[in-house]
């Protein structure tokens, strides 16, 4: 049986390493099969350089029609699985057709790559960056190896960042005024605010603040919207009386958030909302949703 | 719904809650042992989630809370040790806030917060402020109260009070006060809110539950009272106004009442004294505001305040000047006046309670200001006059307390007698209470042995106790309990002996006053009250006598003759009762006293009265016997009478004696009369012949009695009468009555012997012990020899 197995095995082992792979920050990425793997982190305009190593298995040689490495930025819709839309595609030819008898390393470099979008793993859509090495072969089919990497782009502090302040209510039943200190939060930010009860005629059981993510994919009639609640944070327990003000302090760190994405390549958008929910004793829910913008702030220390 | 669930269900839920806590605590401890912060936080949050229940009553919830509390102590130790969890405390402070549920989050935050303060990595005031602010998220009354009480507890030793490690730099005692005040305010709001929840039907239960929770709220005030560095100024400027603001604004009677009580209890007395005005203003404000709900007991608050201040004043005399300085009395008096004026609805008992407290206060603080005391009583009179006749028993009790207070304080009724409003207050009591009060007054006098020594005071006193002295209008005498009545009258009798003055003149006045009052007492009282009066007067007579008799002359009103006139009239009144036996005794007493004063006609007059009574009023034969013996006894001792008067009286007496109904009584009375003729003094009247006559007559009667007994019963009975007469013979024989000869004695002894033999007929000698001992006496005297022995030798046995 051994020889049979050997027949289906790839003829060589391909590995892709980054130049500064040892020092580069690694971030976890969830794969399709649910496992989390660590991938190196890049940002736009960085030079992506490294080495591709091709090592034929013992006593084998690899005949090929050329070796190339591609840097791809892909968007994958889950309703259209397996079909990738490449919004970025760069190629470097590494070798002319020939034969490889022993381990051979090819350095490569994509300098100052424009990577406008962040890596994103959503419910219905995925945006990923990948290095793809192809050893083109005629009869036996090409040998392909992928190496994912993550792109995160940092945004400076927005110059304008107004607070969100609003009075809402149901006539003669409930009037509240809420205030969140900003409308734009970075991912390690903390939401501060206050809920002020102007009128309370219902028996409130508790009040939660939710962070909701709205992911819309496709366009026009095919638009697909998926909403997830990422955080459910109890702000208040029990029934307040008129005049009571309840503090809000929600740390964003523990939640798996991404920056707000607006119309990424006409394929999808990701928006975030703060949803203030009041639940009464009959479990009726009263809520008010406010969009917030999330952005990624360059971390000072790292 | 908790409200509808039974006790059993509650027990079940509590058990479940406890099990939940224990379960998660177990895992938490494992994580603690492994120093695994993440797991620790996870399981501690789960454990604390058990406190989110709404199903338990406060008491059961407290049980649950305490179990969680114990676990949190372990957690705090862990948080305290950075080497174990590896995070700076500031990060920890953020980390615990990631918890999704607010209640566990807040408990953890408070726990870490206390560690944070302890680490001094942040100013304690900032942390405290943050904690007390964040706790607002828990609006459920019971859960919120317990959470905040947890906060109060963990922060208690970390307040930046003076002398603590956390004070200094930017952290002042003011921050500590601010923190506690805020926590207090929020807790009070939560506490008050309980009453607004749930339907009215469970109101009572809610009230009960709230009562169980009140100490959680009050604890804050306690802490405030204990914070080092809260000086009078701060208390005056910040603490008290803020607390009072909360009290007044919460518009909840239970809370208002309890909190005022707390304020009064926890803060030092001198602060109260210095802020008296503010405090009283708040009290009156409360009174006015809750005008429609007279159930609230602001008066109790006032009462407590005054009691507290009274005790403070009593504790050390050094502070008294402070009271004067702030004019405490005037302020209190004003406040009470205001309260009573504005709250017309207030039951009279409430007003009285206030007055009692004010009076107690006055007596303690201004013992020398009788005018204050009188002022309080005056206010009380005004209030009492404005309402119809007092009927509330509790109010009555308060009035009694009010009136008793000065008695107890001064230990001297005399002081109380100078209070002009005192009797006016008493007028408002109903008859029964009036009597009780009168008894109290008398008891006070007795207890303190105080002597009332002027007629004016006696007048006032009797005015006070008039409930005992005479029947008040509308009293149904039938209803009175006989024993109580006697007790009361005995007290009055005792009281009369306490009225005393060395000055005969004043004493006479006193007696006249007393007499005037007692004469109104009616037939039921006179038998009790007249005798002490008589004896009191007789004492005066004897006093005058010892001063040398009638030295001041006839023109002076205080002379025995005059007194005897009064006495005569007084005893005469008894005839209306009627109570002849008593009157007779009193006449005899007077007669004897008159005799001692050498007032023959007076003594004679008294005897005459006594004899008239005997003849006209004393019909009962037993009473007659007693009366005769009394008359004889008295007459025998009196030596003032001239021969003629004496003869008349003795003749009468012997005459009465012989006319007694029963023979033995006759016999005894007659031989008693023999003493009338033989006064064993040096210059006494000694009429031996008439003595012998009396004795012979007695013998005759004894014989007749013997025979009568023989005839009616067939046996003559004992020879007692003879033996008694024999003894009289022997007495006079010894005294040297020449008419009593040894042979008389001898023949009498033989007579007795014969009698005894005939009596016992067939039987052998049955000796009479009296007789035997009499004979033994004779033998003894014979043997003794000497003068007496010689005399006795003549008697042959």
From TrEMBL, chain A:
Name under which the protein is recorded: Uncharacterized protein
Entry keyword annotation includes Protein transport: yes
Compartment(s) where it occurs, according to its Swiss-Prot or TrEMBL record: Cytoplasm; Endosome membrane; Golgi apparatus, trans-Golgi network membrane; Prevacuolar compartment membrane
Bilayer topology: Peripheral membrane protein
Keywords: Cytoplasm, Endosome, Golgi apparatus, Membrane, Protein transport, Transport
Function of the molecule: Plays a role in vesicular protein sorting. Component of the membrane-associated retromer complex which is essential in endosome-to-Golgi retrograde transport. The VPS29-VPS26-VPS35 subcomplex may be involved in recycling of specific cargos from endosome to the plasma membrane.
Transmembrane stretches, start-end: none
Species of provenance: Thlaspi arvense (Field penny-cress)
Superkingdom per UniProt: Eukaryota
Record note on quaternary structure: Component of the retromer complex which consists of VPS29 (MAG1), VPS26 (VPS26A or VPS26B), VPS35 (VPS35A or VPS35B or VPS35C), VPS5/17 (SNX1 or SNX2A or SNX2B). Component of a retromer subcomplex consisting of VPS29 (MAG1), VPS26 (VPS26A or VPS26B), VPS35 (VPS35A or VPS35B or VPS35C).
Gene3D superfamilies assigned to the protein according to its UniProt record, in alphabetical order: 2.60.40.640
Family: Belongs to the VPS26 family.
Record Pfam families: Vps26 (PF03643)
Keyword Cytoplasm applies: yes
One Gene Ontology biological process: intracellular protein transport
Residue ranges the record marks as coiled coil: none
UniProtKB/TrEMBL annotation, chain B:
Main location: cytoplasm
4Fe-4S listed as a keyword: no
UniProt subcellular location: Cytoplasm; Endosome membrane; Golgi apparatus, trans-Golgi network membrane; Prevacuolar compartment membrane
SUPFAM superfamilies documented for this protein: ARM repeat
Highest rank taxon of the organism: Eukaryota
Membrane topology: Peripheral membrane protein
GO CC term, one of those recorded: late endosome
UniProt KW keywords: Cytoplasm, Endosome, Golgi apparatus, Membrane, Protein transport, Transport
Family: Belongs to the VPS35 family.
Its job: Plays a role in vesicular protein sorting.
Protein's name in the database: Vacuolar protein sorting-associated protein 35
């Amino acid at each position: 049986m051994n020889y049979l197995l050997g027949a289906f095995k790839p003829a060589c082992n391909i590995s892709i390493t980054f130049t500064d792979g040892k020092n580069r920050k690694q971030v976890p990425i969830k794969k399709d099969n649910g496992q989390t793997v660590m991938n190196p982190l890049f940002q736009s305009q960085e030079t992506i350089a490294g080495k591709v190593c091709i090592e034929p298995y013992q006593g084998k040689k690899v005949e090929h029609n050329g070796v190339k490495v591609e840097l791809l930025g892909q968007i994958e819709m889950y309703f259209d699985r397996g079909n990738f839309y490449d919004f970025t595609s760069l190629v470097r030819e590494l070798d002319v057709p020939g034969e490889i008898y022993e381990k051979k390393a090819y350095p490569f470099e994509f300098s100052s790559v424009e990577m406008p979008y962040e890596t994103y793993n959503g419910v219905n859509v995925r945006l990923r960056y990948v290095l793809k090495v192809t050893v083109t072969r005629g009869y036996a089919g090409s040998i392909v190896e992928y190496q994912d990497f993550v792109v995160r782009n940092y945004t400076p502090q927005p110059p304008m960042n107004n607070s969100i302040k609003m009075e809402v209510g149901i006539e003669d039943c409930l009037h509240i005024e809420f205030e969140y200190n900003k409308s734009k939060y970075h991912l390690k930010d903390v939401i501060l605010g206050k809920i002020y009860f102007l009128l309370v005629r219902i028996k409130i059981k508790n009040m939660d603040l939710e962070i909701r993510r709205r992911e819309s994919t496709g366009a026009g009639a095919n638009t697909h919207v998926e909403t997830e609640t990422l955080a459910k944070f109890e702000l208040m327990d029990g029934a307040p009386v008129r005049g009571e003000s309840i503090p809000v302090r929600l740390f964003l760190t523990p939640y798996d958030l991404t920056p707000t994405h607006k119309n990424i390549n006409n394929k999808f958008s990701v928006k975030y909302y703060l949803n203030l929910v009041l639940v009464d004793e009959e479990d009726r829910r009263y809520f008010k949703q406010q969009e917030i913008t999330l952005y990624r702030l360059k971390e000072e220390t790292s | 719904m908790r409200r509808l669930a039974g006790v059993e269900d509650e027990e079940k839920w509590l058990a479940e809650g406890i099990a939940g806590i224990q379960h998660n605590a177990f895992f938490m401890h494992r994580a603690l042992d492994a120093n695994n912060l993440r797991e620790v936080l996870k399981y501690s949050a789960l454990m604390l989630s058990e406190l989110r229940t709404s199903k338990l009553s406060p008491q059961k919830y407290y049980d649950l809370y305490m179990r969680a509390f114990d676990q949190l102590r372990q957690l705090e130790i862990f948080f305290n040790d950075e080497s174990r969890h590896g995070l700076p405390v500031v990060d920890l402070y953020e980390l615990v806030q990631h918890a999704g549920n607010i209640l566990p989050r807040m408990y953890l935050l408070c726990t870490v917060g206390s560690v944070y303060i302890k680490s001094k990595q942040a100013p304690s005031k900032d942390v405290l402020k943050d904690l007390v602010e964040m706790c607002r998220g828990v609006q459920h009354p019971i859960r919120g109260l317990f959470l905040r009480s947890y906060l109060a507890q963990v922060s208690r030793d970390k307040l930046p009070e003076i002398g603590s490690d956390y004070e200094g730099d930017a952290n002042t005692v003011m921050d500590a006060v601010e923190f506690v005040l805020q926590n207090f305010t929020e807790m009070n709001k939560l506490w008050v809110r309980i009453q607004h929840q749930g339907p009215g039907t469970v109101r009572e239960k809610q009230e009960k539950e709230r009562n169980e929770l009140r100490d959680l709220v009050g604890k804050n005030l306690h802490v405030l009272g204990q914070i080092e560095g809260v000086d009078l100024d701060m208390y005056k400027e910040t603490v008290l106004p803020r607390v009072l603001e909360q009290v007044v604004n919460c518009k909840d009677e239970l809370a208002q009442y309890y909190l005022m009580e707390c304020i009064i209890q926890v803060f030092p007395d001198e602060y109260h004294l210095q802020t008296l005005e503010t405090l009283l203003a708040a009290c009156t404000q409360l009174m006015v505001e809750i005008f429609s709900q007279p159930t609230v007991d602001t008066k109790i608050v006032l009462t407590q305040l005054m009691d507290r201040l009274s005790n403070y004043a009593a504790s050390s005399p050094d502070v008294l000047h402070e009271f004067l300085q702030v004019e405490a009395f005037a302020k209190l008096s004003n406040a009470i006046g205001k309260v009573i004026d504005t709250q017309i609805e207030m039951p009279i008992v409430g007003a009285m309670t206030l007055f009692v407290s004010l009076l107690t206060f006055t007596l303690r603080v201004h013992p020398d200001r009788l005018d204050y005391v009188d002022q309080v009583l005056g206010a009380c009179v005004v209030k009492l006059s404005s309402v119809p006749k007092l009927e509330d028993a509790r109010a009555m009790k308060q009035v009694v307390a009010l009136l008793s207070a000065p008695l107890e304080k001064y230990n001297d009724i005399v002081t109380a007698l100078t209070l002009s409003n005192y009797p006016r207050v008493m007028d408002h009591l109903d008859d029964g209470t009036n009597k009780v009060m009168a008894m109290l007054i008398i008891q006070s006098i007795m207890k303190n042995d105080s002597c009332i020594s002027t007629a004016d005071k006696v007048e006032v006193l009797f005015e006070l106790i008039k409930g005992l002295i005479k029947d008040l209008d509308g009293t149904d005498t039938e209803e009175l309990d006989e024993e109580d009545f006697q007790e009361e009258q005995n007290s009055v009798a005792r009281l009369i002996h306490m009225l005393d003055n060395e000055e005969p003149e004043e004493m006479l006045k006193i007696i006249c006053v007393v007499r005037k009052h007692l004469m109104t007492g009616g037939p039921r009282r006179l038998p009790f009250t007249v005798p002490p009066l008589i004896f009191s007067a007789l004492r005066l007579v004897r006093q005058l006598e010892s001063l040398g008799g009638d030295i001041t002359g006839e023109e002076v009103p205080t002379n025995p003759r005059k007194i005897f006139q009064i006495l005569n009239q007084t005893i005469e009144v008894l005839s209306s009762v009627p109570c002849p036996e008593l009157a007779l005794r009193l006449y005899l007493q007077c007669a004897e006293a008159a005799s001692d004063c050498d007032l023959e006609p007076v003594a004679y007059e008294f005897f005459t009265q006594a004899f008239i009574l005997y003849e006209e009023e004393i019909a009962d034969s037993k009473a007659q016997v007693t009366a005769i013996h009394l008359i004889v006894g008295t007459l025998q001792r009196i030596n003032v009478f001239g021969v003629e008067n004496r003869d008349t009286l003795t003749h009468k007496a012997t005459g009465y004696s012989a006319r007694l109904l029963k023979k033995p009584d006759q016999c005894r009375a007659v031989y008693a009369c023999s003493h009338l003729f033989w006064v064993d003094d040096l210059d006494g009247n000694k009429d031996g012949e008439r003595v012998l006559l009396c004795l012979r007559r007695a013998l005759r009667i004894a014989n007749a009695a013997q025979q009568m007994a023989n005839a009616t019963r067939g046996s003559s009975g004992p020879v007692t009468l003879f033996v008694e007469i024999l003894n009289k013979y022997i007495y006079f024989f010894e005294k040297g009555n020449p008419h009593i000869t040894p042979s008389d004695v001898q023949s009498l002894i033989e007579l007795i012997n014969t009698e005894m033999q005939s009596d016992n007929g067939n039987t052998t000698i049955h000796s009479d012990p009296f007789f035997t001992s009499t004979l033994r006496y004779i033998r003894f005297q014979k043997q003794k020899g000497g003068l007496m022995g010689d005399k006795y030798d003549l008697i042959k046995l």
